[in-house]
Automatic annotation (TrEMBL):
First-listed, main subcellular location of the protein, grouped into a coarse class: other
Start-end of Low complexity biased regions: 31-45
One GO term describing the cellular component: cell envelope
Lineage: Bacteria, Bacillati, Actinomycetota, Actinomycetes, Mycobacteriales
Region: Disordered, residue numbers: 31-54
Protein's name according to its UniProt entry: Possible membrane-anchored thioredoxin-like protein
Hydrolase keyword on record: no
InterPro entries: Redoxin, Thioredoxin-like_sf, Thioredoxin_CS, Thioredoxin_domain, Thioredoxin_ResA/DsbE_sf
Domain Thioredoxin: 57-215
UniProt KW keywords: Cytochrome c-type biogenesis, Disulfide bond, Redox-active center, Signal-anchor, Transmembrane
Organism (species): Rhodococcus aetherivorans
Single biological process term from Gene Ontology: cytochrome complex assembly
Subcellular location: Cell envelope
């Protein structure tokens, strides 16, 4: 059976309507948002991949030789209160707010695939050595691939204490924009002094930011 001319036009109209409905239909809320770098998502439903077991990570941890995560120094307060993470250095559980309680802190959000992070991390290492106990400096790996994080830190010779946060809970807690790197400056009482969504170009730049927003000169 052949369609009449009117029938063919009706069919074409129907196809166009269906295409428009598909185009405007709401997307699944669970679909990952595009990443800041245009390819990778900045958040994941879990903190680390299932294949990143303690056994598989052990040689990577040995090679990275990271400093131990800070021990709890108080109950912890502010937006990070109650958030626990895996310490990159040894796999122990860390209450981040409690670990930073009582002194100024610099918390750096980064990921293994982030180019500006790779450039910035050595400057943070240099600043941490300069600051000593005056300012706590901790990294937060914001991607579920913990194995790659340890490999990168060994490659960069950066041994700062850090935690694994593949689900980007710190980023959400401090209301940081979805970009990396991000540095969060935290007061001794746990409140956020400043969120800096930008890479540092030198240890002096880090020192200036800390002095400006936390009042600590080193």
């Amino acid at each position: 059976m052949q369609l009449t001319r009117a029938g063919r036009w009706s069919l074409v109209a129907l196809v166009v309507v269906v295409a428009l409905i598909v185009a405007i239909w709401p997307r699944d809320a669970d679909d990952p948002a595009p990443a800041a770098d245009g390819g990778r998502p900045t958040a994941a439903p879990v903190d680390r991949r299932a294949q990143d077991t303690p056994e598989s990570l052990a040689p990577l941890r040995a090679a990275a030789a990271l400093e131990p995560c800070p021990a709890p120094a108080g109950n912890g307060a502010g937006p990070l209160a109650g958030l626990r993470f895996e310490c990159l250095g040894d796999g122990s559980s860390v209450d981040l707010a409690a670990a930073l309680a009582g002194r100024p802190a610099l918390v750096n959000l980064w990921a293994w695939w982030c180019g500006p992070c790779a450039e910035e991390l050595p400057y943070l290492q240099e600043y941490a050595q300069r600051a000593g106990d005056a300012v706590a400096v901790v990294t937060v790996h914001t991607d579920p691939n913990e194995a790659n994080a340890l490999s990168r830190l060994a490659e960069y010779a950066v041994r700062l204490p850090g935690v694994q946060d593949g689900s980007a809970r710190v980023q959400a807690a401090v209301q940081s924009p979805p970009v990396l790197p991000v540095t969060v400056l935290i007061r001794p009482d746990g409140s956020v002094a400043k969120v800096l969504p930008q890479p540092f170009r030198s240890a002096d730049d880090v020192a200036a930011a800390v002095e400006n927003h936390l009042g600590v000169k080193v």
